[in-house]
Amino acid sequence: MTGPDPAAALEDVGAEVMVCLLTDAEIAMRFPDYPAWLANPAPHQAVHLPMVDQGVTGDDVVRKLVGDINQHLDQGTGVMVHCGAGYGRAGIVCISVLTSRGMDLDS
């Protein structure tokens, strides 16, 4: 595989689900083999929800993603969320999950 090994990354952190927030163009430019893994990540699971970097994604889309992630977490399934750098799109999704689970923003 060209680029990072998503299955190994999941195994390193004990997660089963990869949430990819990269756009198709970002993936094609940086990780040309990644779409094949996203389409067939067995034995893991993959969610590809493209979000434009520094863009605005609809509230309903983000709420559904947060709900889906929470379902996995409630079942004891680890989830890894990533974007291009890990502090914009992924950060917003992760803080949304944490606050939906009762974490205070000051924590």
Model description:
- Helices cover about 45% and strands about 10% of the residues.
- It is mainly alpha-helical and about 110 residues long.
- It has a single domain, classed as Protein tyrosine phosphatase superfamily (Protein-Tyrosine Phosphatase, Chain A).
- The chain has a three-stranded parallel beta sheet, sandwiched between helices.
- Helix 4 packs across helix 5.
- The longest helix has 16 residues, at about 60-75.
- It is globular.
The number of strands is 3
**SSE sequence, one letter per element:** HEHHEHEH
How many domains in all? 1
**Name of the level-1 CATH class:** Alpha Beta
Strand order of the largest sheet: 2-1-3
Number of DSSP helices?
A: 5
Unreliable residue runs:
none
Mean pLDDT across residues: 92
In percent terms, what proportion of residues is strand?
A: 5-15%
What's the main sheet like?
3 strands, parallel
Alpha-beta classification: mainly alpha
CATH hierarchy: architecture: Alpha-Beta Complex
The geometry reads as: globular
CATH topology name, in short, is Protein-Tyrosine Phosphatase, Chain A
Short description:
It contains 5 helices and 3 strands. The chain is mainly α and 107 residues long.
